[in-house]
Amino acid sequence: MDLALFLPLLIVLGAFMFFASRKQKKAMQATIDLHESLKIGDRVHTTSGLEATITGVGDDSVDLEIAPGVVTTWMKLAVRDVIEPDDEDEADEDGDDYEYEEDVADDAYDVRLDKDPTRSPKTDS
User: Fold this and answer.
1) Burial class (CB within 10 angstroms; exposed 0-12, middle 13-18, buried 19+) of 25
2) What does each C-alpha distance from 22 to 10, 26, 28, 36 come to in angstroms?
């Protein structure tokens, strides 16, 4: 009788573990495929949030150019994803899409120079 009580619980637990492990295997395979597809010239994000260009690829490491002339060596595991070229990114780099309004500070903070800040409004008679 005790086995009949625990059998549905064991089946549900076993099914949950099976589907959880399948999801983890798919994610691991996607990461492996990403690391195998890295090539020189790709723009990548690292797990620490750094954007860089690949300048060299080894068995377990990649050389990343993080600034012009600055190349560092990283483990392939630190590469989170490849940055796909996008038309919006190219427009932002040109700086044409950004407009600056000079009077933003004036709108945000009104400075009144004609009144003494130490005097209260009630004493202005």
Assistant:
1) exposed
2) 18, 6, 10, 21
Residue 89 near residue 97 (C-beta atoms within 8 A): no
All residue ranges of the chain with pLDDT < 70 are 1, 87-125
In angstroms, the CA 65 to CA 43 distance is: 9
**pLDDT computed for residue 9 by the predictor:** 86
Q: Is the Cβ–Cβ distance between 78 and 63 less than 8 Å?
A: no
What pLDDT shows up at residue 86?
75
With 0-12 / 13-18 / 19 or more C-beta atoms within 10 angstroms meaning exposed / middle / buried, residue 66 is middle
- The count of residues in the chain is 125
